[in-house]
Write a structure and sequence with these properties.
402 residues, alpha/beta, Urease, subunit C, domain 1, TIM Barrel, 2 domains, 8-stranded mixed β-sheet, 6-stranded parallel β-sheet, binds zinc ion
């Protein structure tokens, strides 16, 4: 492979570029050139890259010397900059708020998953609000779990009291058009304890019903014992770490079942939980081969949470032993998986939606580069900087073609 790979790869890229770069529509083409491109699939970055955008989609990606740039394209020189997939925050609240969605998008987070709405809107109003908000590229794309399912008196706002009512609750949420199901297994919060929780039969009914519809289930837990329950039920992601030590066999079971983990260090900080066990749990999960998706539980506790890229989450993931590439994958491809949109976003590939983050240095060298957001495109449109005309550098490039 070491000999064949370098020969085949450029050929494939040329073929991909040639087939993909034939403009199919009349929409203008945007060419991002000379940047270093991290595509979110985990391989080595592409130096001196070209990324062509037409409409809301990526038209082609490849080395500058090999991708034909249509003469009509608007060209933006990103030399010295790094191009990444738009980041995805897989655990937030208060996303039914246009100011928050705009702030996330401006900061490079082009998709958020709202993990539980509590408020006056009906299901139909939530879905209508989401659909309208998602028309505006200036907003982060909103993926919504609707209301968190629990039992009467439990932690959550959608109450079920039998496996059959649990199944019906899932269908009523999904029939309304929500994107993901959220359940909770929480013993206590904010000074309470001994809260009632879903039975194994109810958990199983929820997961089965959601999976029948091809929809993922996210499970709220904060303790290892309940993580064990939701892992046994077969949820798709754990929406938090546990604050007590997680036995290795539970982490291994998560890996075997491909259950992702969304750490949410930020909300544990908000409640003053010690970081030691959290870091240890995440470190063990990574060593076991687990997949992490970035999420900070924005608004899930007291105090301030970061909008835009949640650097505290990024720093804590790194402190737990995740490499810069692992942190980037958690924030892009893996988060796209848990929000159920891995076919559309999370990686930079021809045909995918052009949600793009450009930073002024290379985060593989130092994750602090993620603080230097240079440009953000969402649905193919540059949304940061706002009124970004100064970025436009009409260049006559040596490889231009029609
Ligand atoms: Zn939450």
């Amino acid at each position: 492979m070491k000999i064949i790979f370098p020969l085949i790869l450029p050929l494939l890229l040329i073929l991909a570029a040639c087939t993909a770069s034939t403009p199919t529509g009349s929409e203008p083409i945007l060419a991002l050139v000379h940047g270093t491109l991290i595509d979110g699939r985990g391989g080595s970055p592409l130096q001196d890259a070209v990324l062509l955008i037409q409409g809301e989609r990526i038209l082609a990606i490849g080395p500058y010397r090999q991708v034909k740039i249509p003469r009509s394209a608007r060209v933006i020189d990103l030399k010295g900059k790094t191009i990444l997939p738009g980041f995805i925050n897989a655990h937030v609240h208060f996303a039914f708020d246009e100011r928050n969605l705009a702030a996330w998008a401006q900061g490079g987070v082009t998709t958020v998953r709202d993990e539980g709405y509590q408020g006056p809107k009906t299901l139909e109003q939530l879905v209508a609000w989401r659909n309208a908000a998602n028309q505006n590229p200036g907003n982060a794309r909103l993926v919504s779990a609707g209301r968190m399912i629990t039992v009467p008196g439990g932690y959550g706002s959608l109450h079920v009291d039998s496996p059959e009512s649990a199944r019906q609750a899932v269908f009523s949420e999904l029939d309304a058009g929500l994107d993901v199901i959220k359940i909770s297994m929480e013993d206590g919060y904010a000074g309470t304890s001994g809260l009632p929780k879903l039975s194994p039969e109810e958990l199983s009914a929820i997961v089965t019903a959601a999976h029948e519809r091809g929809v993922r289930v996210s499970g709220h837990i904060t303790q290892a014992a309940y993580l064990k329950d939701i892992v046994e039920a077969g949820v798709d992601d754990a929406a938090h770490l546990a604050y007590d030590p997680i036995p290795m066999e539970i982490l291994q079971s998560m890996v075997a079942k491909d259950i992702y983990l969304v750490p949410t260090f930020s909300v544990f900080r908000a409640y003053g939980a010690p970081t030691g066990p959290l870091l240890e749990n995440l470190s063990n999960f990574i060593k076991a081969g687990g997949k992490v998706a970035m999420g900070n539980d924005y608004g899930g506790g007291p105090g301030d949470f970061e909008l835009g890229i949640p650097m505290y989450e990024i720093e804590m993931m790194a402190e737990a032993g995740m490499s810069p590439m692992q942190v980037i994958l958690a924030s892009t491809r893996n988060a796209a998986h848990v929000v159920g949109l891995e076919d559309e976003i999370g990686t930079l590939e021809a045909g995918k939606i052009a949600d793009i983050l450009v930073v002024s240095a290379n985060p593989l060298d130092d994750l602090q580069a993620l603080r230097q957001v240079f440009m953000v495109a969402h649905l193919g449109q540059i949304i940061f900087p706002q009124g970004e005309k100064p970025l436009a550098t009409p260049t006559s490039t040596s490889n231009s073609s029609d």
